[in-house]
Amino acid sequence: MSTTSKPKHIGRNISRIRELKGMKQEALAIAIGLSQQTVSNIEASETVDEDKLVEIAKALGVTKEVIENFSEESVFNFFNNFYDNSANNGAQGSGNTNNSCTFNPLDKVVELYERLVQAEKDKVEYLEKLLKGK
């Protein structure tokens, strides 16, 4: 049994971060000025040139350290903490996760309807004035 640690697969980390960001290889390729095939090759390699890694990190909106130290576990922890915090704090940090209206939606519908009827009455009145003017 070996005690040496397996080196991080930088290309795989780039691929996972790119996918989490919802970005296609082609979009990343355009952002860093390479072909999609080159991005595919980079994602298949264990190591990436330092300068290229900085460019890729910038295009992905992260630091190169994030790519180098990326792990699935850290992503799950982030999203679990984010979900837990947002569920506990609610939309406005009130601790209330119920989304309730501060107005009656039916009142708004009635108000809108009345405004539309009034606009139609105004149009009819205007058209009648035009007809009487001729």
UniProtKB/TrEMBL annotation:
This is Helix-turn-helix transcriptional regulator. It comes from Flavobacterium ginsengisoli. InterPro entries: Cro/C1-type_HTH (IPR001387), Lambda_DNA-bd_dom_sf (IPR010982). It holds the Pfam family HTH_3. Residues 14-67 form the HTH cro/C1-type domain.
